[in-house]
Amino acid sequence: MPSIPPIVNATLQAVVFSATSNIIAQALTAYQKDKPFTLDTVALTQFVLFSILSTPPNFLWQEWLEDTFPGHTPDTTSAPSTKAKQEPKEITRVFTTSSGEVIEKKILSRPPSPSAAEETKRLSTIESRTNSPSSKLNIRNTACKFLLDQTVGALLNTIGFIAGLGALKGKNGEQISAAIKNESVSMIVAGYKLWPLVSIISFTLIPFQWRLAFASLVGVGWGVFLSLAAGGQ
Fold first, then answer.
1. Residue 79: which pLDDT band, with cuts at 50, 70 and 90?
2. Using CA atoms, how far apart are residues 67 and 131, in angstroms rounded to an integer?
3. Radius of gyration of the chain, Cα coordinates, nearest whole angstrom
4. pTM
5. Which residues span the domain enclosing 90?
6. Same structural domain for residues 155 and 188?
């Protein structure tokens, strides 16, 4: 039986967590207004549909960050030396001159090896995904990922959320543009109270294959906030 592709698995997880957070948000809203709880299936469907549409791009974004800036790279100070494998070998070649004289020459031969760039990229990818004890945290790459995720990623996610939910609710372009202008900054500032810490923990302590699940779990609480915010749109 074929395994579920990681991007599909991540989307399914996001759907479950987003549905949970939206239901919790609706229950909190009913409690705050002192009204009996009645599930708004339209709002729930909109929130879930947005998760289905937004999770694949986010998955690809995180994958690109990790591929471009591997969080863990081979520790050359502790890794065993591979010089013995690269030692040139002495072989004997026999040549015959035009006069018929046989000459033996000893030459050095080195087996072909992949380019340094390809090998480094391959090792970096493997190490970053397995979090091997023979690797170490790459501070520079981790800082680059963090900065990109908290600037470009945060901005695109916020605009995507406001525009996506607005479109699903039937708003026109002018209304969506106004919402982006009025709500983006406050939503990003609110996000900075949570997601920078989550990103640091994720990039430094959580293996790559578990980062989306970790973010989704934390995202339940954030999803409650987004659901409450979306309810006011």
1. very low
2. 14
3. 27
4. 0.68
5. 83-113
6. yes
